[in-house]
């Protein structure tokens, strides 16, 4: 090989090697992104269900609640709960547990008591900036009650007032408000009572009131033991147990 050929070969070989190294490096760097590319947008990871045990006055939902009146911690064969007198007892938690969710299930285990007002709002979640909200309510008539659930989002709203599904006051009940992005449903002890179509935008940062509506009307008389929030439309088989 001539000296000129040697010079050309020695000059080109390192450059070729560097180009190949760069291509391999670029492939390794971009491969994970290319592999994840598809025509279907990737959904954000679903949050784990969040369970609030309503069994103390110091911490609920990870923060110290603002206490109104004198709600009391009680205990029976089912465990601890908080009792509300139906006149001036309430708790305010500085969090919206369904913030940013477009589908969700809100469950609660509660026990209504006789002697309360007709309209009682006992779980109230509301956006801080706007009037969008989700509520669990009851209407009490003598020794019976029926469930009323409500969601408001902008100009869209839906109330499921289950007047035809009355229940005795006194026992513990499980209730669930389920929204799958298209239809709102509610259940009592796993039995669907009402449903209807609804379109919503997600709620932003906000607060949660227990035992009363956030503006201190419609006080609840009874006890609440547990509330759970799930970023999915659950089926009755997936509901928490009483």
Mind sketching the topology for me?
Blueprint: H1 3-35, E1 50-53, E2 66-68, E3 72-76, E4 79-85, E5 90-93, E6 104-112, E7 119-127, E8 133-141, E9 144-153, E10 156-161, E11 167-168, E12 173-179, E13 183-188, E14 191-197, E15 206-210, E16 221-230
Antiparallel strand pairs: 1-16, 2-5, 3-4, 4-16, 5-15, 6-12, 6-16, 7-8, 7-15, 8-9, 9-10, 9-11, 12-13, 13-14
Short description:
With 242 residues, this protein is mainly beta.
List how many beta strands DSSP finds.
Answer: 16
Q: Examine the secondary-structure arrangement and name the CATH architecture of the largest domain.
A: Sandwich
Number of domains: 2
Oligomer: single chain
How would you characterize this protein structure?
The protein is mainly beta. The chain folds into two domains: about 40 residues; about 190 residues, Jelly Rolls (Sandwich), CATH 2.60.120.200. It is about 15% helix and about 45% strand. Strands 1, 3, 4, 6, 12, 13, 14 and 16 form an eight-stranded antiparallel beta sheet that branches. A hairpin with a 2-residue loop joins β8 and β9. The longest helix is centred in the first third of the chain and has 33 residues. The radius of gyration is 28 Å and the shape is globular. The N and C termini lie far apart (about 90 Å). The N terminus is likely disordered.
């Amino acid at each position: 090989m001539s000296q000129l050929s040697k010079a050309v070969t020695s000059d080109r070989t390192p450059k070729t090697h560097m180009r190949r190294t760069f291509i391999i490096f670029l492939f390794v760097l971009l491969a994970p992104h290319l592999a994840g590319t598809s025509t279907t947008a990737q959904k954000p990871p679903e949050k784990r269900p969040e369970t609030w045990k309503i069994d103390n006055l110091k911490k609920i939902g990870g923060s110290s609640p603002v206490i109104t009146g004198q709600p009391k911690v009680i205990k029976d064969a089912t465990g601890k709960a908080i009792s509300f007198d139906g006149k001036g007892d309430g708790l305010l938690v500085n969090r919206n547990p369904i913030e940013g969710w477009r589908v969700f299930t809100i469950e609660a285990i509660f026990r209504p008591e006789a002697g309360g007002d007709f309209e009682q709002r006992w779980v109230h979640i509301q956006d801080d900036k706007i009037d969008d909200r989700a509520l669990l309510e009851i209407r009490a008539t003598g020794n019976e009650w029926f469930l009323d659930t409500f969601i408001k989002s902008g100009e869209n709203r839906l109330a499921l007032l289950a007047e035809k599904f009355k229940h005795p006051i006194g026992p513990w009940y499980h209730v669930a408000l389920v929204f799958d992005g298209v239809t709102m449903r509610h259940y009592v002890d796993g039995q669907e009572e009402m449903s209807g179509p609804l379109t919503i935008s997600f709620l932003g940062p906000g607060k949660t009131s227990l035992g009363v509506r956030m503006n201190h009307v419609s006080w609840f008389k009874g006890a609440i033991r547990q509330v759970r929030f799930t970023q999915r439309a659950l089926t009755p088989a997936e509901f928490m147990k009483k």
